[in-house]
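Q: Fold this one first, please.
A: Sequence and structure below.
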Amino acid sequence: MYERILVPLDGSELAEAALPYAEELAGRLGSEVILIHAYESDDEKYRRMHQLYLQKIVEATKRGVKSRLGTGEKGEARVDSALLIGHPAEQIVEYADRESIGLILMATHGRSGIKRWVLGDVAAKVARATKGPVALIRVDEKGLKASKKAKISNIILPLDGSKESEAAIRPVEELASKLKANVVLLHVIAPTYFVYSIPGETVEMPLTAEDMQRSREKAEHYLETVAAAFQKKGVNTRIEVIVGAAADQILSLADEIPADMVAMSTHGRSGISRWAFGSITDKVLHAANTPVLLIRESGGNKKKINNPASE
């Protein structure tokens, strides 16, 4: 599914921070890279300027892909480009859908503090509207340096037992098997649950020690079942069951490992706002220190797992 990788560029160093990741994936997976630049002016002098810019980046990207080709691998680095006129987000989404792009790689700027990720307007619109997977690369001064390495060796895949979260299993399985990356399957148990009380209020109740142990055992069994499927594909996998707030624990584990990518699914819907981020995904997306791979939940991505944790 990663045969064609799209990298939107706007001429900035920020946007170009996604290129090392595209080069790494293309070199390791044999993917074609398409560099796209959308601009709203159809002035001929600007078109020529954009063409020259893309030509320069295409050649540099080809060299980057070749440098990452595995030992003994044959074939040329396939890098192409496209200039589009119109609103950048709309043009990127339409192109990706029309050309059957397998993955969109975009950089988005970051800053320190609670809201460490501030999604750019274009990146946010693309992530919410495109049909396929999107990898968002957080970039700040530190991130620009880190992005040049762009090696993906450790991937965290959070799973809650739902069909929606399992939509990310197959894409991560394919990516990890080809990259020889390690996968950490994570399940986070909430320490409390909500019950309805009269007159219609909700009360937060802590899990008992017995309930907590039962939940942990079910979660471990579920993750072991998923891990077995990964291991059949030759993917080195381990499981983690943690108690706490889901988004916080995902972020904490990503920093602790440290992870090179967090892969999460998010439910989709038709229409202009085709992606509606779940609250946990949204929190991780805005606060992660590592690239986040978003998989839109759809029938084609689902991989049914017998999940005792949900019984």
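Q: Good. Now the second chain.
A: Here it is, same layout.
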Amino acid sequence: MAMRAKKPKGTRKGYTTGACTAAAAKAAVMGLITGRVPDEINTQLPNQEWVIFQIIEGACDSSTAHAVVIKDAGDDPDCTHQAHLTVDVQSLPKQKGKILLQGGKGVGKITMRGLGLEVGGAAINPVPRKNIIDNIQQIAADFLQHQGLEVTVSVPDGELMAKKTLNQRLGIIGGISILGTTGIVHPYSTAAFRASVVQGVEVAANQKLDTVVLTTGGRTEKFTIKTLPDLHQACFVQMGDFLGPALDTAKAVGIQNIVIGGMVGKLTKMAQGEKITHARRNPVNTQLLAEIAASVGAKQNVCEDISNNETARYAGERMEELGLSELFYQALCKRVVNTLKTRYPNQFNYTILMCDFDGNALAHYQEKKQ
């Protein structure tokens, strides 16, 4: 008998919070209708695929039902992996045909415009919202002819999970968002993070802000917040490696002022024209750094050492030893701006804030649009 080949590590797909919630909702409604919450439920995803989800907890009586699905994010690193997507349903005898979907404990609440959701409502995005209702209607058409349903989604520890997301920056408080456009989480997918970057810029624009501060990570974000304490919190968008999508969105929504906070490595990637600055993509162009070093007075042997090394950090350390670091970092920031101006001509006013690995300021470069 032939052995089944194992999937390579890092390739196992998972399911979104939205897909898991839809499954729990369908199972709970099934329990309300039939008197028994099933152990598993066949659910249609937003992409029209059918998937069987396991129900780990279920209970019902004549007017209420409860079901829980544990989110499996597959091989995608996600703070909501193993979250217990919980749905409680209650019959509404006087509201036939209605399905009232709301958020309970651990599901975020919307406090700012710009997300396409009602301020004050639950952070259940439009696609999963529709998917939850569609799955309920598949099994409850007869039931809904006589009464309605109140469907409450909750996530134990959702408030703690939300602290590892960008939710608070987007004006979502008190818990996680119920997300997912297809229902599937692809292994090591960057789609969710990219979407949050785009959403962050859109939220800033919807608050009538004319500035976004794009940072490459947590340390640079803390550095820029400390440097620019008077800016609204919605201005700060942790873009990670997604410079291109962030700037494309800023252009689309009319943001005028771009502040980029980064360290020497990511800024070098930007200077060399990378729109996605992930370490696994093109390597740092140390020849470019050698040219910048030469332009501020470094001798040929130093420039050769910089060119032959693999890291941008090494270039900075060599220039610091020579007392040329301030000129070097300013020149690197200028190169970043010139590269971006080539890609987005006459579009933005740029400020570059550079810090070291401990969050100490190395450069503050500003150039106004001509």
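Q: Anything worth noting on the second one?
A: The chain has two domains: 14-185, 191-367.
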